[in-house]
Amino acid sequence: MLQGKNYKVKKAIDGETALLAAQSNPPDLILLDIMMPDMDGYQVCEKLKLNPTTQDIPVIFISALNNTFDKVKAFEVGAIDYVTKPFQEEEVLARINSQLIIQYQKRLLKREQKIFKKEIRQRKETEAILYQSRAILSSVLNASVDAIAAVEAVRKPHSSEIEDFRCLVVNPVVAKIFDRDPEDLTGKLVVKNFLNKVKPELFLALMKVVETGKTLEKEIQYQHKSIHKWFHLIAVKLGDGFSITIRDITKKKELELKLNKIATIDSLTQIYNRYSFDVKLQETLQHCTKEHQPLSLIMCDIDYFKNYNEFYGHQQGDQCLIKVAEILNNIIAQNTEQMLVFRYGGEKFAIILPNISLKVAVEIAQNIRQTIQDLKLPHRASLINGWVSLTFGVTTVNPNPNNDPDLLGQLITKADNALSKAKNGGRNQVRAEKLIDNY
Fold first, then answer.
1. Which of 125, 326, 347, 433 is catalytic?
2. What is the CATH number of domain 265-434?
């Protein structure tokens, strides 16, 4: 299948061979089975992650094992994704393509960061030279693509408190920001007035550089009407003032945001993916434990979705998934921003509900179920009616500091059990199970 899509594929017949091949010629991605002779997939993955040569290679498990325990263990040993057999070709290709894109973006970002750090180091060295020689300063400043300036403090006569900064040297890039010539800014008090319009808190931060001698290095975001930019600045104490270097890092930040979106958002439905679910559920459990609040979880499936795909085709099936995800997201957004919807896998969705009791969680699930049903999205292959419907499993836990270490696994299992009982009970319904009996 992969070779038919122009991927270059290398096979290994057992775990030991796979480890040797991955180390000698590291691939971009590893697809790994679990049940193998001598060494199982979990052991292979652990050894890959312990080896500096192979630890960053993403691993996707493809296995007939469909238990939650097997999937959780796969992620614990370092897997990035898990696909169960039998699988759909389109889904596997989409997941592989997504991981390869992430790897490419990581390499690109790493290269950019390396270049950026090198340039930062070079600029610091340059600033030391500039302090000693105005002649060198002038030539370097005029050639720089960054905004560079040196200023001195202007203090109040009686209190010695800094009230503004006077420009000593500015390069053409700084002058362009003020829409003036560099010579017109020399000796002028323009810093405070400018910062009050852009980032008022920066003035206090720059005062602190002068008073403490501590270098200021930070990224700032600037938004004004249609302008949206990010900048990286370094301010270093210079006499009774400071020198400052400002670089436009908008492209770098946009790349980071794009990479983050690829890593956390499901490419089809544009809601959070399974990886995000695992991370967010752990964070939410910690929060609810600290705040002594309940944590509810909803698992839901589109009824007879396999029939839907066979009847309408996979392309129409994708549209159905997108529509259902949109509806789920809209309903949850109307309740609270704390609730989040995730594509758990295939036609299965998960909803995390912090600070929500079991009773309220069931009401929310019933509301979603009724909303979907009222829309009457056609599903002629359904065995219960002619419309798209959802079945729900709901559970709640009231966590405490003495939680079982496997509480998250138990929470997911309980929600899955409730979902299974709802399916066995006729589908298009909500079934709830309590994780802790006295809650």
1. 347
2. 3.30.70.270
